[in-house]
Amino acid sequence: MAARDLDDELTISEFGRRAGLSHKALRLYDVSGLLAPARVDPANGFRFYSVSQLERARRISVLRQLDVPLATITEILAGTDEEGLIRLDRWWAAEQATNEARRATLEYLRDRLLRPSTPGLAPRPVLTREVPETKIATIRTDTDQQLLVGVIISSVMQIRAHLDRAGAVLTGGSWVIFHGAVTPESEAPVEVCVPFTGLVDPAGPIAIRVEPAHTEAYCTLTKDECAYPRIMLAYDLLSDWVRRAGVPTTGAVREIYHPNFPAAAGSDLAVDIAQPIEGPRK
Predict the structure, then answer these.
(1) Of 2-11, 23-32, 57-66, 156-165, which range is least confident?
(2) Mind listing the pLDDT tens digit for each residue in 24-81?
(3) Longest dimension (CA), the chain
(4) Which domains does the chain have, with CATH numbers?
(5) N or C end of the chain: which has fewer CB within 10 A?
(6) Which residues contact 254 (CB under 8 A, 6 or more apart)?
């Protein structure tokens, strides 16, 4: 090895000190493929890093201080700085939404402890409507209740960015189809959907399909009422209506977010809980 290369080398201790990372962290990032050493001595297994790797290591250190998952860090650092910024902003928006959802859940629990005799959800009607055939872009993934809000926010942002680049026209808000029971203890598949018109190709996790026309029963909630577990009372209301009406269901239940949802105040109507059902015979 040339002398100039040796001058550029740092031991794992010196590299860790300058990057703000421990030996344990550096070994983890090596195993995960996030930050491999520039050279490993075959005789003794000592790891050596180059000075040029310090910037990447420092970015990893800062991202870990923000509790960014390793998989997300890999995505942020995989492309250009511009692409990394988009992925970082998407993750941060999801984190903020998750924290806001936790705050709303706390407020619900405090309200139940302060006023246990009041109903958790005010009475409201269950209505029906006809939904036309709709072209949608979707991301399907598994999640639990704790990560659900973040998954929804990041997926919607990713889908809308893809549609925007393709020149598509958005035709509504967004919705989430629950293909299984999402709970705090277990994951289930969910499908995040954004309707559009135009010619768009699938890309990565984003699929393009047509949602068939259908009849659905639904009830509408305010933004504050979307907090878990209060929102589950709306699911109960809808399920009870379907059972009493004696109509067969024809698809998975879904949460439909109105176009005004991001800017809606807590008391604004912003979400429909909807269940596809068998429509009137023609």
Answers:
(1) 2-11
(2) 999 999 999 999 999 998 888 899 999 999 999 999 999 999 999 999 999 999 989 9
(3) 84
(4) 3-76 (1.10.1660.10), 127-277 (3.20.80.10)
(5) C
(6) 175, 176, 177, 178, 273, 274, 275, 276
Give the β-pairing of 269-277 and 254-257. antiparallel
Tokens for 182? Answer: 């999402």
Check if the beta carbon of residue 229 is closer than 8 Å to that of residue 118. Answer: no
Give the pair of three-digit tokens for residue 153: 């926010």
Q: Kindly state the tokens that stand for 264.
A: 């809606």
Token pair, residue 126, equals 């269950």
- Can you tell me the distance from the alpha carbon of 192 to that of 257, in angstroms, rounded to the nearest whole number? 11
Do 172 and 163 meet the contact criterion of CB atoms below 8 Å apart? no
What is the residue whose two structure tokens read 């246990």?
116
